[in-house]
Specification:
mainly beta; five-stranded mixed β-sheet; 13 helices; about 10% helix; cell outer membrane; transmembrane
Length: about 1000
């Protein structure tokens, strides 16, 4: 049974924070903002601007489906970043967040948190701060949620569907608008601490916000500072990750093991060695050995042919070396590191804003934000494996007599051989991600003096700079010099380098191999925007209102790799990392937009009000040229209690500067392990369903055509679930086009009974169809489709497009940097229904008793009807709704459940409340079964998880809140056939988590 642990830092942090709060006198006043001040731009307090529109008017409501998340809901998530509160909403799918512990070699997003609406990816979800664009934190245009000034969030408004007419590019899936508190007066200090039931994953946050009026009330200023610290949580502390250590496959070990390729030794030579160890002969069909030879710690040999492995020694270690993948697979303890479930994070942020009325009709504001944060990821030691295996000459002086006799039996006895090795001697690979982001925004707004016309103009300057430092790397050139030295490298370092067995080299040799790299990325954004809005003229049904404006936007990207990854000879000197070239570029955008609100009918039977909202935007991009977006929305107030809303939007998303200009780089991509019935893994692997199926001969012929050596075709195994795929920018990309439809209704209870008067219901249908979607063509599907999965290559043609993405090592057959090209893919279409129910019950009105409190029920439910994807024009279309394992983008999440819901039950009595929250994710089949109904890759079961939270006002204007997330410590469901494989983006992998928070007003 797991023992709950509390670290000393936990006690110290909680104690100091509490002492800070309770030792001060109390008084503070926070004036929560009305919806009038949503902006962009200040408008008179009697007018409202809702997210998704540029027009202000009295009593205005959103025409698009909108969800609002309050400050309390964010706090009740128990996390120190807002990302978790968003990802739990049914409209969102899991995206990189606190579980984002590592990145690819370009290191563009380690530790960042994103919001992904409808599973369409963070780059298609536009994030705004008070209606204005924020600085992108990723070259693909995504905004990192870590830069949001969370202490000032009043609420978060989420609109589904295209909003490009209103806000421009990137709003394909919808908009998330963070609305900040206004007219803040006083001082508020808050803190929170949390820890998992396993004694890790600690999180600590403390913030202070100071604000007040000045100049006789003509101005208001606010300053908020925030410090956040989050520690790692480890897989090894959770029993449900234990089985990852018994996953079939061939591990890379510190002692090393060989890959012979087509130059194989004879069985007689191998059996001669192993008979001396006391083992029975190994059999084979052609007289040549087909397995690997590994080294024990004492430099004796073991063989991976057959189960059990013969002559493996050192069984007392607690790490794992696993062989074979059949029912007789064997675990030998060697070679796995403990992975992180939650990334380290340390963040400092400052936000300030000043509003000032220059005259009675002109207002101004100046706003700035600065965020500095660092996330650290620890991974396995550097591995020389797969395409990064070492080449060793047969003349190496450290080769033992036993191994030398085996090498001498090969057809080319003096040929080099491939050697795999885990460089534990260098320690773990540690990647730190340091981000420095600022944004300065200022502007003016006022009244034109013509009717109620108002104007607004603002400008913004921002920059995101981030550095990725990688330590624990190995120099390929240094290793080559040591391995090919006649002396074993004694001329380079003391004692030379013996790679065979677990021989510890001298510190001088370790330092000779060890490398550190540093890559830098810089993103810049400049914005100038001006607009005017107000009433035009009156019609019988009401006033026609408009908004008109234009903007200019500049975005640039610059990437500078470490010189060791960009050698003059065109190679990378860091083992396991591909060549990186400097890259960069910029995009200029000029836009004009207009919106018209036309009241059509009013005060008729069943039509209290019927309004039409029309919008148009013309955008001229330096990258793709001129594009058009437009919308038509309808708002129909049928009765006091029934309202309908809906419309059509044409949206676009222009390719980002990163998608256009990012360097080609290598990233580790999981293609799965081969099984006789599944669709995962390398199809050429003899254990795969492709080789063992009815088309096995055609598959083998295609594998030979791709480069698998004929001598290995009947024994070829990849031995890993990962390949190192190439992905980079494409300057020829065109814009995405999206058509969004929505229709729904809002019902507020028409009944006056105490039981039903507090009931409201909204139901909204949506459909988003995106053409020419920009994204990498998944190499996992590239393998599958090349080998005719889903009928994509029925003739097994090696010149098929998907096959052209795959290149193999002619000596071993191992895939060499297969390509994941960034393309305008085919299309995808997403449709579904959102339901939200709110029910408030005042118990006193029900006759329970005086001052008996209030009971609130809130539920948000999402049903996904379809999630159709066509990878390329003319290719088959597959519906991934109700499946897990398929992602449009690497940061879009992989789960597409039919049903997802969040339901809260809250009881409030005076200044205290207690709440229970139920989170539900529907069961899903594997995405492999979508393409191949006969696939036996397992899906996931339904997932129910409960959270408990409470809050109370203490004396001295202090609020305390406590909570437990994942109350019953429900483990996440296994994804796929690989034991210990879980989806940290969509499921709770931390386990039960406790938190306590305090907030004090002065």
């Amino acid at each position: 049974m797991k023992t709950f642990k509390v670290s000393s830092r936990s006690v110290l942090l909680c104690g100091s924070a509490f002492a800070t709060l309770v030792s001060q006198p109390a008084f503070a006043q926070i004036e929560a903002p009305d919806t009038e001040d949503t902006a962009p731009g200040a408008v008179p307090p009697t007018e409202i601007v809702v997210t998704g529109s540029r027009i202000a008017r009295p009593d205005y409501q959103a025409n698009s489906p909108i969800v609002s998340i309050g400050e309390d809901a964010i706090e009740n998530s128990g996390q120190v970043t807002v990302e978790r509160a968003l990802s739990e909403l049914p409209q969102f799918t899991g995206s990189f967040g606190q579980s984002n512990t590592r990145s690819t070699s370009t290191s563009l997003n380690g530790g960042q948190s994103y919001a992904s609406l409808r599973g369409l990816g963070s780059k298609r979800t536009l994030l705004l701060l008070d209606g204005r664009r924020m600085q992108p934190s990723n070259p693909d245009g995504s905004v990192d949620l870590n830069i949001i000034p969370e202490a000032l969030i009043e609420n978060v408004e989420v609109i589904t569907g295209g909003a490009s007419t209103t806000y421009g590019s990137d709003a394909t899936a919808g908009v998330v608008n963070f609305r900040l508190k206004r007219d803040f007066e006083g001082l508020t200090v808050g803190t929170q601490y949390g820890i998992s039931d396993y004694g890790d994953g600690d999180s600590f946050r403390i913030n202070g916000t100071l604000g007040g009026n000045f100049a006789d009330g003509r101005g208001n200023a606010v300053l908020s500072v925030d410090y956040t610290k989050r520690w790692r949580a480890l897989e090894g502390d959770r029993d449900y990750f234990f089985f990852r250590r018994t996953t079939p496959g061939l591990a890379t070990i510190p002692q090393g093991n060989t890959i012979f390729g087509a130059n194989r030794p004879t069985l007689d030579a191998v059996n001669s060695v192993f008979s001396g160890y006391g083992f029975d002969p190994i059999s084979g069909s052609d007289g040549y050995y087909t397995g690997q030879i590994g080294f024990n710690t004492d430099q004796t040999l073991f063989t991976t042919s057959g189960v059990p492995v013969q002559n493996f020694r050192d069984p007392e270690t607690d790490e794992a070396y696993i062989v074979d993948s059949g029912p007789n697979s064997q675990q030998i303890n060697y070679g796995y590191a403990d992975g992180a479930l939650q990334a380290n994070l340390e963040r400092y942020s400052v936000f300030g804003k000043a509003d000032y009325e220059l005259t009675d009709s002109i207002r101004s504001f100046l706003q700035f934000s600065y965020v500095n944060y660092e996330s650290i990821a620890t991974g396995n030691p550097t591995l020389a494996s797969n395409v990064y295996g070492l080449s060793v000459p047969s003349s190496n002086p450290f080769i033992t007599d036993d191994f030398a006799s085996i090498l001498a039996s090969r057809p080319d006895p003096t040929g080099d051989f491939t050697f795999y090795k885990a460089f534990n001697i260098l320690g773990p690979r540690i990647q730190s991600y340091r981000y420095d982001v600022y944004q300065i925004t200022g502007g003016f707004s006022g009244d034109l003096g013509l009717g109620d016309l108002t104007w607004d103009v603002y400008g913004s300057v921002s920059r995101a700079k981030f550095e990725n430092e990688q330590v624990g790397g190995a120099s390929a050139s240094a290793l080559e010099r040591l391995l090919y030295s006649p002396t074993g490298g004694t001329e380079y370092c003391e004692g030379g380098f013996n790679p065979f067995g677990n021989v510890t080299p001298s510190q001088e040799c370790v330092d000779y191999i060890y490398r550190r790299t540093l890559n830098t990325n810089e993103l810049k954004q400049r914005i100038v925007e001006g607009s005017v809005q107000g009433g035009l003229f009156d019609m019988p049904a009401g006033q026609v209102r408009f908004a008109l404006g234009g903007d200019y936007r500049y975005n640039s990207y610059d990437f500078q790799p470490d010189a060791q990854l960009n050698q003059p000879d065109g190679t990378s000197d860091i083992l396991g990392y591909s060549v990186l070239r400097p890259a960069g570029g910029s995009v200029d955008t000029t836009e004009f937009f207009a919106e018209l609100l036309v009241p059509l009918l009013h005060d008729l039977p069943f039509i209290q009000k019927l309004d039409l909202d029309l919008g148009y935007r013309y955008s001229d991009y330096s990258s793709v040229g001129g594009v058009h977006t437009y919308k038509a929305d309808v708002d129909w107030q049928a009765t006091d209690w029934l309202r309908f809303r809906g419309g059509y939007n044409r949206a676009i998303r222009a390719p980002s500067v990163g998608e256009l200009y990012a360097p080609v780089s290598t990233g580790s991509v999981n293609i799965g392990n081969p099984t006789p019935t599944g669709s995962e893994g390398d199809p050429c692997d003899v254990r795969s369903s492709y080789r063992q199926g009815p088309n096995g001969d055609d598959v083998a012929a295609l594998c030979l055509a791709q480069g698998v050596p004929e001598a290995l075709i009947d024994s070829y195994q990849l031995g890993t679930a990962q390949v190192f795929a190439l992905t980079g920018g494409n300057p020829d990309l065109q814009e995405e086009k999206a058509d969004t439809y929505s229709f729904g209704g809002v019902i507020r209870s028409p009944f006056y009974s105490p039981m039903l008067s507090g009931l409201s219901l909204s139901v909204d249908w949506y459909k988003i169809k995106v053409k020419d979607a920009v994204g990498p063509l998944s190499i996992a599907q590239g393998f599958q489709f090349c080998f005719d999965e889903g009928g994509n290559n029925p003739t097994f043609d090696p010149d098929n497009y998907y096959c052209s993405l795959i290149e193999r090592n002619p000596a071993s057959g191992v895939p060499l940097n297969p390509q994941q090209p960034l393309l305008n893919l085919g299309q995808f279409s997403v449709s579904g229904i959102d339901i939200q129910v709110d029910w408030r019950l005042d118990l006193e009105d029900l006759g329970v008793g005086t001052n008996s409190g209030r009971f609130d029920i809130n539920t948000a439910i999402s049903y996904l009807d379809s999630f159709k994807i066509q990878n390329l024009p003319g290719a088959p279309t597959y519906d991934y709704a109700g499946s897990i394992g398929k992602s449009i983008e690497s940061n879009a999440g992989t789960a597409h459940p039919r049903w997802k819901s969040v339901t809260s039950f809250t009881y409030t009595l005076g200044d205290a409340s207690i709440g229970l929250r139920w989170r539900f994710i529907d069961a899903m089949k594997s995405s492999s079964q979508v393409v191949n109904p006969d696939s036996t890759t397992r899906g996931v079961e339904s997932y129910n998880i409960f959270d408990l939270n409470g809050r109370v006002m203490l004396p001295a204007e202090t609020e305390m809140r406590v909570g437990v997330t994942n109350l019953f410590n429900r483990k996440p469901p296994q994804v796929g056939n690989r034991e210990g494989n879980y989806d940290a983006q969509n499921y709770d992998v931390l386990g039960r988590y406790f938190f306590v928070g305090l907030k004090k007003n002065f």
